[in-house]
Amino acid sequence: MTDHSSDTPFTVAALYRFARLDHYRSLQEPLAKLCCNQGIKGTLLLASEGINGTIAGTAAAIGKLVDFLEAEPALTGMELKYSSASEMPFKRMKVRLKKEIVTMGVDDIDPLQSVGTYVPANEWNRLISDPETIVIDTRNDYETAIGTFQGAVDPQTKTFREFPQWVEKHRDDLAGKKIAMFCTGGIRCEKATAYVKGLGFEDVFHLKGGILKYLEDVPAEESRWEGECFVFDERVSVGHGLVEGEAELCHACRNPIAPQDKLSPLFEEGVSCPNCYHERTDEDRARFAERQKQVRLARERGLKQHIGS
């Protein structure tokens, strides 16, 4: 494991593995106890098809958790990406039992049986530069809004459940092409390639380790990535080298906003942003404004208490 303790106080680990995990229910309690004892926060999802999650803690604490998981024979060799955070990026720890570790909503999709060809980060540029390759971003619209690969097709899905419908609608466009898919950490595109392979497509590929691995391994000057990568924690986004990005969340709609969005006349902190302004009523914005006022007052009271303590 890479030690980030000398740089920042928190190590963030994104992990997953598709595996035959019939005893997944029995792992919930010991995992929750270990994370609680070690001060780890985040989310771990357990299902009969494997494990998925992102968690944060000290480097030593994350190391103990990874050792615990790797001791499970079915989970040995998990896909793991490490990054750093200057502050704890999660509010609590959740270990949840699920039907799927990434929800596509299609029965009988098994990445352990059939999956696309893994493409290492250092070979990805060559694949997506091929004019016979269709590059597909399997993430949702609020994620693609702040960054994606040059020339990538954006299905503009709201949830991953919509992805199979998009593929069915565009089967003719995909026929005879190399299909290269990517996502944040690798898990969604791994399931997506299994689905597409099941439809009869042969030349199907996906970025091993996802965007996070690409941003970690590929130098910025050689990169075909544009923007930042949305992450599901309080950091909001990361850039090359997995450094914390500039994106923030609109606390009205929970969508990411770039620095230029805050210059828009439609932006008001905690009330609206260019993404949601026209989707809300004046009553909604009045309610959000009152909520933001209470948040501000709470912060001021907390600051005063701190100064006087």
TrEMBL record:
Per the entry, what this protein does is: Catalyzes oxygen-dependent 5-hydroxyuridine (ho5U) modification at position 34 in tRNAs.
Its family? Belongs to the TrhO family.
Name used for this protein in its record: tRNA uridine(34) hydroxylase
Which terms in the Gene Ontology molecular function aspect does this entry carry? oxidoreductase activity, acting on paired donors, with incorporation or reduction of molecular oxygen
Q: What is its EC number?
A: 1.14.-.-
Q: Where is the Rhodanese domain?
A: 129-223
Sorted alphabetically, the Gene Ontology BP terms of this entry are:
tRNA modification
The keyword tRNA processing appears for this protein: yes
Q: Name one Pfam family in it.
A: Rhodanese
Any idea which UniProt keywords this protein has?
A: Oxidoreductase, tRNA processing
Keyword presence, tRNA processing = yes
Which PANTHER family does the protein's record reference?
A: RHODANESE-LIKE DOMAIN-CONTAINING PROTEIN 7-RELATED, THIOSULFATE SULFURTRANSFERASE/RHODANESE-LIKE DOMAIN-CONTAINING PROTEIN 2
Q: Which reaction does it catalyse?
A: uridine(34) in tRNA + AH2 + O2 = 5-hydroxyuridine(34) in tRNA + A + H2O
